[in-house]
Every structure is written in C-alpha cells, then in structure tokens.
Amino acid sequence: MKLQAATSTLVAFWVGLAGSAFAGLGDDPREWLEQMATAMSQMSYQGTFVYVQGGEVESMRITHVSDDEGVRERLVSVSGPSREVLRDSNGVQWVVGDGQAVLEDQAFNRTFFPELPLDQHDQTNRSYALKFGNSQRIAGQTARNLKVLPRDVYRYGYSLWLEENSGLLLKWELIDSNRKSLAKLMFTDIRLGSEVDPNELKSSSRLTKLKRIESQLPAGRSGGQHAPRWKPGRLPPGFELTAHRSLGQNDQGIYEHLVYSDGLAAVSVYVESHKDEDERETGTSQLGTSHVFSRIMEDVLITVVGDVPAVTVEFIGNAVSPASR
Q: Which CATH superfamily is domain 221-322 in?
C-alpha cells in the first residue's frame, strides 16, 4: 500500500541535529540527538511537509499534541489520494482508501516521528561518523545541519536540520554509504507550542461508520519472554540484540520477534510456523526505503525487515537458524 510505504519511510528517518552555537547546548552532537528525541516526544507542533522519494512527491500535514492527555497525532494527505492516520494512547487508526475502511491496531503505538533510539554507550560512534554542517532557513526557522555518515554498507546515513531553540527536526535527507540521496522530507510551514490548533486533531472521516479491519501486524501480538529459540548465528558489525518476544513453541506453532540495532538503525526478525499450502513470497523486496527479506527453512518462515540496505536484511536473514545448532 502506498500509504504504508510513505509512513514506514517516515517512521524510520526522524532523528536529531547538533550545533555549538544554539540554545545553550554544547558542541557534542549526541547532546543534540538527545535534545531532538525530547523535542519530538514532548513538544506540540503542527505543519505541512513535502516528502520526496524517487520520482514521487507527496505533501502531508501533521498535528502532534503532547499534553495532560498524553500524545495525540493526526497525519493527513494534502495532495494525492485521500489518506489519514490517527494515533493516541489507544493505538493507531489508518483510514484506507477514499473512505473505504479503517485499519486499526491497539498495540502498534509508535509515533510517525519517533524518538531516536540512541544508545548510551559508544556503539553509535563505531557505526557512524557525526559531522556538523552550515545553518539554513527552513519554514521560517533557523536550523543547523548535522550529517550522520555510515562507516560501512550495512546502514543508511542522514543529513539533518534541527530548529535552533527547540531541537525539533525540520528537514532530513536519507543517504547511502556512497553519500547518494535516497529520500528527502522538509517542512514548508510549521507552528510550535501554543500556536498549534488542537482542532486539527479531529478526523475529517466518519470513522465510526467505516468498516474496521484487524491489522494482524506482528508488532501487535502479545507474548511472553523466553530465551530465543531462533537467532542469527552472525550479525553485521555494530548490531546487537535489543528486544525479544516469543509465544514459545506449542500446538499453535512458533512465533518469535527479535530486534537488532546498531544504536540508530533497527532491524526486526520474525520467525513463524509455515505450512506448505501457505503462499508466501520469498527473497528480497523493497517498500519505500525499507527492505524485506524472507526465506523458508524446514517448516519455518523467517522474515527480516528494516529501514536499512538490502544487504543488511539478507545478511541477517541467511544467518538465522535454531539457537541449539
């Protein structure tokens, strides 16, 4: 789905910026990355942005409010097909098509502009080089550039611009290991704090009258904590296991979800029971700037997905096997 491609790309790219001349912060890029995470989660902001990938250009509007009621967010298309996404403490609702249905998942509760999962150790510095750039005016605000450059082919890099006072991200550019631009996103107008109109959180669609569809997203399934029964025997440099959920192995089959991160990029590994009559595509595919790799091993389907280059999901996917081996 085009909506999922756009939003999954957005989910992966919102990260922070640094600058010694701004807002009392020092000259450590990591301070600005942490400030960005705080701004994106705790601030209220509203604006229109343009997203460019390949030959496609989309314009969308976001209203993000953080107050005593928690975090509420609405994302709506300005150009192209009508689409709308609503997020609050109850989860996410995706208005699919032109008023045809609502895709919802109560457990899928991450923002489309997420906090940067910056590690507290030196892992990020081993995988990325941080370099400051020049200031730039974006949507009427002053922002300074920070480049987060990958040290190898297993991860993307970012060129980022943050608003000088708040640390809010106003523009990003996704780049590969050869510094080639893969996608861009930039605000064309933005309101901050008390300037935000909370009325724009209200849906323009009659959600209660639309057909509800269960998303069946793996991220929405509950499960206990067990030692991984399946895992990669090797990983690209810098990636480590950061999360694991499992339903164990029972009459309903196998289900495991593992997350590996290098401090910035994250890759999910799903291991699920597979029957011969199930028609699942295998190999590598692309969704926006995300890549998916799937293969079948015995009676198990292994799927690896992440906002990383194809070589990364293939490396991890081909290395997954029973932990006992």
A: MucB/RseB, C-terminal domain (3.30.200.100)
